[in-house]
Amino acid sequence: MRAPVKVPAIPPAPTPVKPTWGLRRALTWNFKTIFLLSLAAGLAAGTASALLGYISMDYAVYSVGMVGLAALIAITGQAERVLLAIILLDVPFALDFNPLYDPFFASVGAITGYNISLTTLCLPVLYLIWLMKSASKANSAPALPLFPKSALWLPILWIVFNLLSILAAESPMMSVYSLFLLIQSLLLYIYLVANIKTSADLNYILFFLFLGITLESLLMIGLRIYGQSFSFAGFNARVDPDLRVGGTLGGPNTASTYLSMLLPLCSSYFLLVRQHKPILITLSLTGFVFGVVALFLTLSRGGWVSFAIAMFLFLFIILYFRRVSAKILLLGMFILALLLLFQDLITSRITGFDAGSAETRLYLMDIAFRMIRDHPILGVGLNNYALVMLSYYANYNRSVYLTVVHNDFVRVWAEIGPGGLLTFIAFHIYLIQRGWAAWRHKDVLFGAVALGLMVALIGHTAHMLVESFHGRVLMELYWLIAGIITAVSYQNRTHLDSSEAAP
């Protein structure tokens, strides 16, 4: 009998190694990492020592920062994610360069000059990487996903009305300044909608949003204690003589808007997302705790009201749907303790002398409606309100503080006409509706993010009735939130990749 032939055993297939990115990969100590870190440190130290003696501190810091950025991209191998992180942090920590800046028109609320920011520099590179990736995948789906038509045609219609208003503009160049920022914000919106595809993508964005609000809030608290504004390497940290804190966001009203729009997101993540990543839950909590304190220090009544409306709606919704936890009680006790701590400050701000601020808003509304009456179709032109306002102000028989009307809806109506106003309102309602639809979806992470941003937009609607928001920071923040809500809403209709990677 022939002996059986021994068949060599087939070795088991190696277990696939999940690719890592970001800080996790940077902390993988291999030869390449050590070499690149050493090279980056040497270049940074050499650059600093060589430049400090010849140019200003600001340019030296920029040079060292660029070397560090190049090293970070080389180490992580994730240029796209690094650039996106810079854009997200560029909202609170604005580092802008503004050619053709006009101090007078800027002081009365107009956008002047070409606002060049880190976002301006990073967006073209992001789009280039996106297009190169799409071109390299011959059999892949189109680069721009087929998300709901209203996610694109409403913003495009908004751009069209802005362009049409330039025909009536007294200064078309002023309109171009604003259009430059608007197109930049729209490009960021499209990129987010097309590239937030998984929970890992969303967590990455949340990490830097939570990190940004935490650091900005700590800076604002420190400014209040220090009591003086300061500048460093192009960053301007502001605290007014009456100790109203604006941080690096500009004025106190701008800072309060930033905080009141992201605080509901922090609380929603902290309370509703069950499978927490430790670093994200920590940052969402610190962002909320320090952010609420910083919001009180802005002394912005509009920001307080916006935050109160958003949090009331948020708590009502989660209690109605029985998403109750002990954390709600803890956050409620914390807010109550802050109200008791700042009760004198809040009372004096609400009931004290406001230097005619409320009365001035009524006069500014009267001027705005006169402008609407005289320019009923195309308005006075995008970003031309401040310019045209001068002729109305000259004929006004009252002493009115010279500034753009403190109502975003009325400003849009006066500048762009009724078509632009209706499109603006329609898109705002669309975002709220999309947020509600995503909140009701079974995916907890996407639903929690949608709910937090939806109530933030509702609260912001009340704030827009008493303030005007069209600067670079707040415009970019609004379209950033719009992009996240739209992406979350769309991805809730498809199969979600449940795999997540830590930032």
Automatic annotation (TrEMBL):
It comes from the Bacteria. Keywords: Membrane, Transmembrane, Transmembrane helix. The keyword Secreted does not apply. The keyword Membrane applies. GO terms for cellular component: membrane. It is found in: Membrane. The chain crosses the membrane at residues 34-53, 107-130, 151-169, 175-192, 204-226, 255-272, 279-297, 303-321, 328-346, 412-432, 444-466, 472-490. Pfam families: Wzy_C (PF04932). Residues 287-425 form the O-antigen ligase-related domain. It is a multi-pass membrane protein. PANTHER family: LIPOPOLYSACCHARIDE BIOSYNTHESIS PROTEIN PA4999-RELATED (PTHR37422:SF13), TEICHURONIC ACID BIOSYNTHESIS PROTEIN TUAE (PTHR37422). This is O-antigen ligase-related domain-containing protein. The lineage of its organism: Bacteria, Bacillati, Chloroflexota, Anaerolineae, Anaerolineales.
